[in-house]
Amino acid sequence: MSQINRLVLILFMIPALLIGCERLNSLDDTNKDGDIFSDDAKNSSASIDEYLKSNRRFGIFTDFLMMADLDDTLDIQGPFTVFAPTDAAFDRLPIRAQRILRRDRDIRREVLLHHVVESEFSLLELQDQVRLRPLNGRRLRVFVSNGETFVGPAKIMQNNGFVRNGVIHVIDEVLIPRRLQPTLGL
After folding, report:
1. pTM for the full model?
2. How far apart are CA 156 and CA 99, in angstroms?
3. What whole-number distance in Å separates Cα of residue 186 and Cα of residue 122?
């Protein structure tokens, strides 16, 4: 390979490497404070719905919100605290549960409402709570274990995404109301 070809190859590789590194950095879920939310997102003018739709990690959750006609509620009303499961959390559900959630509007709606609490609770405020009442009327237990905060069985992975009409906490599991667990094969 001639020196000119090597030089051209190197000149094209450097930007590609830089772009690749930037993409890897953008896929890193946390910042130095342990959450996915930049300082701009923490005081965002976006609504809960707008923020979730802009982040590809919540595709299934936002699709389900739209299918249940709840996306407008999370866009206009509030304040709310939303425990947002990632696509990976939905993928860990048994196939039967995934199918039922896609097909049964009433079950899907109840599960989604189980992720939304009226009022805005930061992580620090959640640690002072014992029970929360989500919009489906059921109860969610909040507890701290080994320095980690859990809501029901789900661990809060990233926290304090303050947006225009509330706060988003990313969780590692889909919250299923106890009464629906047998129906969903859990």
Report:
1. 0.77
2. 25
3. 30
